[in-house]
Amino acid sequence: MKKRLIFICLFLSLLIPTNIFAEKALPNNSSKMDIVSQDGSISNYTFSTYIINDYNYFKLRNFASYMNNTAKKFDIRFNSERNAIEIFMESDYRDFSGIPKENISGSKKSIPSPQKIFIDGREVQISGYNINGNNYFKLRDMAEALDIQIDYDQVKKCVILNPNLSNDEKILNDLNQKMKVSMNLEKPLDPEIKNIASGEIIGKDNDFTYFPPKNDNRKINLSLGYAAEIKNSRITSFKKINGTVNIPKNTGLLYMNFDALKNKTICIDGNDVNISQNYINKWMKNNILLPFITCEKNGQNDAYKVVYLNFVNTAGKKNEISELINARGDEIMNILYGNEENLIDFSADRGQMYSLAKKGEDIGLSWWTITRPNSYKERIDHMINYALSRQGATYQEYDCSGLVGTAADYAGFDISPAYSWLIEGSPNVYEVPMNELRRGDLLNRAGEHIMIYIGDGKVVESVPKAGVRVAAVRKAGYKVLRIKDVW
């Protein structure tokens, strides 16, 4: 009887199609990517991927071609004895034949790849697919495995790769420490340096000046230009001025010398534009929030030269986030990432920003890292509120582990990578009983889903179709992981 059952099983296995676990892969030829070179310049590419289950999958050999002339170049070999892909860091890609320019067409069947992956002899866990004999992986997974800083610019809809920085070094965290020399493109710029103008923005002293709030009324003599009054980090009025200006108590002033600014290039709303009176007047009279301003002392008592300014237009249904860098294009890297000890940061109130985050308001990435919390409780609040601020983001922008990992990073928690199938092995989390679940704990179902418990029976999570949302807690099949109180 036993032999008969074995025979039946073998016979049935021959009848089952080998592609029963195949997924449909859809072509995508419009993905954007910026790569920061070792000298700080940025190369822009449009590349092709396959979309599988709402994720973009990138050909491994193509990725090796893009990285070949960067600080994280690598070679690829197939080891038939191991049935494994072997990656060798700091090695030229021997099959390099130029940057890929192929366009893909038509849907394809993709089969989960069974091959193991070794990077310099160390096995890494990356799930991928085989399409027409080539291995495809998520771009973020590859970048994290190869220790390449990766971010996404939501304004430009562009992936940003900085091979010069470790994946663990977050851009704006580096900015907060007045940081490293290389730019992550993105800012972002997460952050991400994003929205940086291609040409000269502002070059002369006193073109762009900030007067922080004080506890008394002030009168200041200014040349012909524009002045924006700022209260509680919002622009309350914007007008043309020439002469004496009254600055009310507890109010800041942002001054722009139009004669010096006109015909310069600035990046607002994700576009390089020529500054004009009409454009300035139209844009600045929107409901503008200023979460973060970086300045340097310019010799006057209460005046600071604006070096970096984060704009958020909250007038529309979806916030528009822009940044202004006060430098020529070739000086931007040094200002953002050089060791500028004379820079002073002016950031919006934490409570004010958290109240916006709870409503799902996107205020950009700069403020979240610059205002790093100082205690364990503050870090939990920071993590939760950052995740809440991403409400409405798509699952493609933040999958479940991407949301948790990014929120934890901005709060200063080292739990990367936050993949649901790996995080239980992290040395910086530990399991607690479900009946001890508390705000800030992670609910994890290994290999399937991870989310952040925010208290009151609710979680913030990212799920397919809905994206980032607040939902009722689910406990069945989940473990409770608590992040350790370590800095």
Describe this structure in words.
This protein is 19% helix and 37% strand. It is α+β, with helices and mostly antiparallel strands and 487 residues long. Strands 13, 14, 15, 16, 19, 20, 21 and 22 form an eight-stranded antiparallel beta sheet that branches. A hairpin with a 6-residue loop joins strand 19 and strand 20. The protein is globular. It starts with a helix and ends with a strand.
Number of helical stretches of at least 4 residues: 11
State the separation between the terminal residues, measured CA to CA: 62 Å
**Dominant shape:** globular
Strand content bin: 35-45%
Helix proportion: 10-25%
Helix/strand-derived category reads alpha+beta
Low-confidence stretches: 1-20, 169-205
Rg, please?
A: 25 Å
Strands, total number: 28
Q: How many strands, which pairing sense, and closed or not: the largest β-sheet?
A: 8 strands, antiparallel
Mean pLDDT figure: 78
Question: Any descriptors?
Answer:
alpha+beta, globular, 487 residues, single chain
State the gist of this model.
This protein is α+β, with helices and mostly antiparallel strands. It contains eleven helices and 28 strands.
